[in-house]
Amino acid sequence: MEKVILGVTGGIAAYKSAELARIFVRNGAAVQVVMTPAAAEFVAPLTFQTLTERPAFVEMYAERSGDKIRHIELLDNADVLVIAPATANTIGKMACGFADNLLTTLYLASDCPVVIIPSMNVNMYNHPAVRENIDKLIRRGCFVMDPDQGELACGVYGSGRMPEPLDIYRFTRAALAPGDYRGRKVIVTAGPTREHLDPVRYLSNPSSGLMGYSLARALQERGAEVTLISGPTHLTAPAGVETVAVTTAEEMYEAVLERFDGCSMVFKAAAVSDFRPLETKEHKVKKGEAAYSVELALNRDILYELGQKKGSRILVGFAAETEDVEQNAAGKLQRKNLDLVIVNNLNEPGAGFAVSTNMVSIIDRSGEVEKLPLMDKEQLAHHILDRAVRLL
Ligand code: CTP
Predict the structure, then answer these.
(1) Does 340 contact ligand 1 (Cβ within 6 A)?
(2) Regarding the domain delimited by 185-286+294-391, which CATH topology (the fold level of the hierarchy) does it fall under?
(3) Residue 84 and residue 15: Cα distance in Å, rounded?
(4) Domain with CATH 3.40.50.1950 in the chain
(5) 3-176 in CATH: which number?
(6) Active site includes 96?
(7) What global pTM score does this model have?
(8) In testing the pocket of ligand 1, which one of 194, 215, 268 has its CB within 8 Å of the most ligand atoms?
(9) 320 close to ligand 1 (CB < 6 Angstrom)
(10) Is 30:2 a contact under the CB 8 Å cutoff?
(11) φ, ψ for residue 222 (rounded to 5)?
């Protein structure tokens, strides 16, 4: 999504659209906000102007710029028109083809995908007139997101609340997703593993699982059948993704190997513990009886084993390095017989474990290195998929 037109209409939820604009911008989109006059009563255009670094337009009859008429020019190269919140009034006008303000005119002149986020009082949302209008827009190819249930601004409980901005962003991304992984069975591993010394103590690492979960979500958006094999994390698996919870590296090994035959790709984003205590005590070790050294055993390298029996499957590994970053990663690619390795330099600010961003390079079998800038892991997941799809 490089260019997003964000239409904001006059509902109380308009304040949430400022956060939505920010999320689009943070994920690399140029955002042009167009407000109805009623929306400008709720939120000042200056708020959007500051967040998007370009003027938020309200006026229909403002001056022309260059040779083009504003509503046509605004649509140049737009990837999507997102209307959030969309009031019953604007939805009605869109369904009937009215063009009485800049936003409704823009909708009629658009030829890009249109995403509509209805937001209104529950009785309005359930009114047959609104329902018919929404159905009409869906039949016309618009993507309409169901509102959330909850307490509405009018104090009533019900359906009609504008969903959270991050969910709207994801809905939009899914609506535009290319479907290039449709029919593929893909395994994603995520999170850390835990190797217990006793029931309350373990060896682990700071992985949050976010990279793997973002990949699972992105794959699902692009049509794949995803199995997410996850170590312990605080994340919620994306809807529609089969999730297998594991704790130890050995459990992850079993879970992955069991499903490997039926899959065509593996994204091995988990930070698997290389070591485990040679012995796990059955009961909590008391301070007084604690040994001062623990003997470790090496865990099996899951990815290495997959590389041995890879066949025509695509294997994507991850490497987190602190020195000789690209050489070490390229070595792992060779040694584990991978197709791609995604490497991050843990010394870079904003890269690596337990942060929402990452800065990586993607290395392929020919040794070609693609360096990507710092970006959100959700956005990075799609970049990785864009690169991996070329191998299919
Ligand atoms: N990996 C794995 N099984 C292990 C260890 C790692 O499948 N027991 C996978 C990880 O999921 C990751 C890749 O191998 O995709 C690289 O992990 P990393 O820990 O960076 O590499 P190691 O091979 O363990 O090398 P080292 O720790 O020596 O850098």
Answers:
(1) no
(2) Rossmann fold (3.40.50)
(3) 10
(4) 3-176
(5) 3.40.50.1950
(6) no
(7) 0.86
(8) 268
(9) yes
(10) yes
(11) -95, 15
